[in-house]
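Title: Comparing notes on inverse folding

I've been comparing how different people in this forum approach sequence design from structure. To keep things fair, I'm posting one structure and asking everyone to reply with a full sequence. Here's the target:
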């Protein structure tokens, strides 16, 4: 089971879009994928039609189990989506209280990792959609993942958020006592604007080999897919954004599910 965290300490850079689209491309009858919403805002949860204001039995309950002295177990908390091989572990707004309630408790940084170990034989991939701030949830996601994907909008203000994310990554690597691989993903690239080209060039200058060579373009069809509550790859398999994420998936060692691979070949 591969575990990827999708994180950046800035909002609006395409974290949820990245999580949903990669999850859709990976999932199918022969390949099972779990999407985990680790963000109190619950964008991933809402994407699939659940209300984070009222959602129960999700990520928050894992921390409650641990606080009560139980081993965190996601069994019974996972929801099936209407797409074959694609499941969801929802967020609730109660996650926003975790730092205040449990942030100083010993062992709270490994809740997600321990929970995922319980189901490692049930899924091929797990994708964690992270909050845009450092706290117990971000620490949990980085401790649980095999690789970090960092979407960065191709504009200069977004580069500051990336700087904070890299500093957080270095801090977590010290506590893990092991290197955590990461890949920077240029997103929301508008090839018509000079500013986007300049920001992309600066991103590559600063971070060099850590930046994926491709880009995720601005594609309004992502908005349509969000309104429909389904990954864009199921609606418009040949959309520009879908093709870009397919290239990204190949670069990070993921395997397109057989139906999507067939469509791509066709």
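Reply #1:
Here's my take.
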């Amino acid at each position: 089971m591969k575990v990827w965290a999708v994180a950046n300490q800035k909002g609006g850079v395409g974290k949820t879009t990245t999580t949903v689209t990669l999850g859709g491309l990976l999932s199918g009858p022969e390949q099972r994928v779990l999407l985990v919403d680790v963000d109190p805002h619950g964008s991933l949860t809402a994407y699939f039609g659940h209300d984070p204001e009222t959602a129960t039995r999700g990520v928050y309950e894992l921390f409650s189990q641990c606080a009560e002295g139980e081993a965190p177990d996601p069994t019974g908390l996972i929801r099936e989506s209407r797409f074959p091989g694609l499941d969801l572990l929802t967020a609730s707004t109660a996650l926003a209280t975790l730092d205040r309630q449990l942030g100083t408790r010993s062992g709270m940084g490994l809740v997600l990792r321990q929970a995922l170990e319980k189901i490692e034989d049930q899924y091929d991939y797990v994708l964690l959609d992270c909050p845009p701030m450092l706290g117990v949830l971000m620490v949990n996601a980085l401790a649980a993942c095999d690789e970090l994907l960092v979407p960065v909008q191709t504009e200069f203000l977004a580069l500051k958020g990336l700087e904070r994310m890299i500093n957080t990554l270095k801090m977590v690597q010290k506590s893990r006592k092991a290197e955590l691989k990461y890949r920077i993903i240029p997103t929301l690239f508008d090839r018509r604007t000079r500013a986007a080209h300049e920001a992309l060039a600066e991103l590559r200058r600063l971070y060099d080999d850590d930046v994926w060579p491709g880009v995720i373009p601005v594609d309004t069809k992502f908005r349509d897919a969000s309104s429909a509550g389904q990954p864009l790859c199921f609606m418009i398999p040949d959309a520009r954004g879908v093709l870009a994420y397919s290239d990204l998936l190949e670069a990070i060692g993921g395997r397109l599910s057989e139906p999507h691979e067939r469509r791509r070949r066709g």
